[in-house]
Amino acid sequence: MRSLMALSFLSFLAWAVVASLAIAILLGMSASGHADGDHKRVMILHSVGREFRPWNVYAKDIRAELDRQTRWPIDVQEHSLVAARSGDPRAEELFVEYIKALYVGAPPDLIVSIGAPSAAFFQRRRKDLFPTTPIVFTVLEDRRVQYSNLTENDTVVSARNDFRFLFESYLGIAPDTKIIAIINGNSPNEQFWQGELRRELKPLEDRIEIRWYDKLSYEDTLKQTASLPPHSAIFWYQMVVDAAGVAHEGDRARWSISESRLSPDSTIYFREPTAWEQYSWQIASIVAVILIQAGLISVLLREHRRRQLAEVQARQRMAELAHVNRFSTAGELTASIAHEINQPLGSIMTNAETANAILKSPTPDIAELKDIVNDILLDDRRAAEVIRRMRSLLKKAPFELKNIDLNDLVRETVEFLSSLAVGRKFELVSLTTQNALPILGDRIQLQQVILNLVVNGIDAMRDTPGENRIISVRTSRVENSAQLSVSDRGSGIPEDKLEKVFAPFFTSKAEGMGMGLSIAHTIIEAHHGLISAKNRDHGGATFRIKLPLVGVG
Q: Is the same domain home to 96 and 124?
């Protein structure tokens, strides 16, 4: 379905011309002494209401031109001839009395009449109101002007609608049109135009079906036009008052005529510019900004993916290095581990031989056999626990964060290192807090950090006398962090080397690889923690680790 809108007066009238006429009239009155030279009163009378389109648009344009072109202050009073909606003469009489009372003693210098009902009102009531005041009749059609009743103070700016020419032009553009629905209201002015439309369009009834909707309410009109068949068009003339007596504001209908279908000699007036024509540079700027942002976002996303991939790869390499480092450390623990395993194995052998001798006795002591069996079980569990810890240390597992208690982790690691303390002849002291220190961490990785720090402490105390060969492992809570410190009483770290101890391949040991502390630093960073080193006041060094507590605001 296509839709069509009648040519409006805006196509024929130039409001700058109307304003210029009004100012010329005011100038003429000033020159003849009929008006005050520094203050002008202009009355604008709307036909059916100030907010009814399209008349309100025309009135605003005229007033804007008056303000732009005039050289004096203008006092503009706008009124609405509401009585024109129904044509009730009693309402008109009351309106006349109202206007008289409003302008008593101070008549307007100029009257601008907007629309045909307003013009007809002034021509009927001119003698009763302002017989000598100049009037500009505008926004009306020639057929609505009573030229015989015009006075020498009247100026008319009008247009003429040729409905038949308009319809024939449209049918030339859209020849497949079968039905045209004409929308027109039911006020006195609209009833006049209904008759004019019927008269002018009668010769076209053999070419198209014309449907009239002047006897319906606005809602019923919308419902019926919504169900029009294909190849139909809507001619919206005006709808001030519908058949139900309800007033409606609005003048717009939908167009669906492509400019490519117009004849080459067509002239298009007041074409609404496209969004691109109106805001081309703004749209271009916005599109450019969006494209730049999209480019930046894509670059950032690519860099983010590359960073994530690099972090994953770095974590994998760190895990590989940590695994190698654990094997290297395990080599240093071999003697101590062998000693710790040999002790329960030797006890198992002794108990087994004793049990065998008792069983050969004519009266074996069952109670003693039970004690021997219990001893064997305890030694077996002890050896199994040593093996379990070693397997846990050496196993190759992915980096996995779990909820653990730092105190439990320290106690388990110290217990594992107890045999190393005996074999290397140093004292291992651990002091843990009474309250739990919940953290999110990888148990094996953190055990390796503690193990590396303890082994480094042992190496640092190589030349320390026996009674001072002490390594302390302590835990504490500092604000929202769990703190772990490992201290030794060795030779300490040279002051110029403190900032480099965590760098890869840095070592003070002739046989060292320089990877232990670097791996420890990487592991702690992966746990969102901090590791630092400093020398003690009375000899030795302290390594301090801070890890975020879980569930602490």
A: yes
Distance, CA of 121 to CA of 141 (rounded, Å): 15
Quick check: is 377 in a domain?
no
* Domain-ending residue, one of 110, 125, 159: 159
For 121, what's the count of Cα atoms within 13 Å in the CB-facing half-sphere? 33
Distance CA 296, CA 300 (A): 6
- At residue 337, the 3 state secondary structure works out as helix
Q: Indicate if 137 and 241 belong to the same structural domain.
A: no
**Nearest partner of 179 among 138, 232, 226, judged by Cα:** 232
Task: Dump pLDDT digits (tens) for 349-396.
Answer: 776 777 777 787 887 777 777 777 776 777 677 666 666 655 555 555
Q: Which two tokens stand for residue 420?
A: 């190393």
Handedness of CA 112, 118, 119, 124 (dihedral sign): negative
Q: What is the pLDDT of residues 417-426, one digit of tens each?
A: 776 777 778 8
What is the phi/psi pair of residue 238, to 5°?
A: -165, 155
Buried b / exposed e across 476-496, counting CB within 10 Å, b at 16+? Answer: eeeeebbbbbbbbbbbbbeee
Confidence (pLDDT) at 6: 38
The whole-chain average pLDDT of the chain stands at: 79
CB within 8 Å of 40: residues ≥ 6 apart: 26, 70, 72, 73, 74, 75, 109, 110
- pLDDT average, residue stretch 134-148: 87
pTM of the entire predicted model: 0.45
Could you read off the pLDDT of 434-481 as tens digits, one per residue? 999 999 988 888 888 888 888 888 888 888 887 788 999 999 999 889
